[in-house]
Amino acid sequence: MHRTTHVRPPVSVAVSVALGTVGLLLSAPTLLVAQPHAGHEEMQRRHRSSSAYIAALDNPERDAYQKPDEVIEALQLQPGERIADIGAGSGYFSVRLAEAVGDTGQVWAVDINPDMVLHMNRRLRDAGITNVRTVLAAPDDPLLPDASVDRFFICNVWHHVEDQAGYLALMRRMLRPGGQVVMVDFQKRDLPVGPRVGMKIAKADLLAQMESNDFQLAEEHDFLPYQYFLVFTVQ
Length: 235
Prior knowledge:
Elements: E1 4-6, H1 40-48, H2 50-57, H3 62-66, H4 68-75, E2 82-86, H5 94-101, E3 106-111, H6 114-127, E4 132-136, E5 149-155, H7 164-174, E6 175-186, H8 203-212, E7 215-221, E8 227-234
Parallel strand pairs: 2-3, 2-5, 3-4, 5-6
Antiparallel strand pairs: 1-7, 6-8, 7-8
Helix pairs in contact: 1-2
């Protein structure tokens, strides 16, 4: 059993932060998703090799801490929903989201790396999955239509987005009324997986940033051992 906290009133966090410089460098090969902890040189090697990076993303050992099936269950997705998986990488979550929303739903698997998009296209074709559309996006724009998305799903990616305020403004435009932004990211402390501490965003800082950009915390799930799991709506 895990505990879910539902938050009704607006979040009030007395922290003033500027996260716009935390970032996705334009030279970075992809929006990053979870991977085993490694030294800087090893991280750089993985991202230079798309095949090695995909293998790291889809490593079965990841399931033990990422708990993908429990994450999908906690979202309580409904048939017909439209989900945008930002930084979809290998499609690790996209294929699970596609199953949850059913044939009448749609998943946009968004990434900035052509090799990842090509890999996902093959994976989706070979699996016969027809309700996922891959999107080769810009680092500062998911390139989705306005008022088209029920939920944005962003897992271990946000600290790589350079213009976070601008990205949030775009997501507000793209969300349907009542839509949500789901943020799953690593706690800002030493962990056996994920990026080094200096790259991470503390939960309190993310809460403050989201509130200052007109998003309100709606739910919090606490069953992931290394990550916070927050759900936001537009105020």
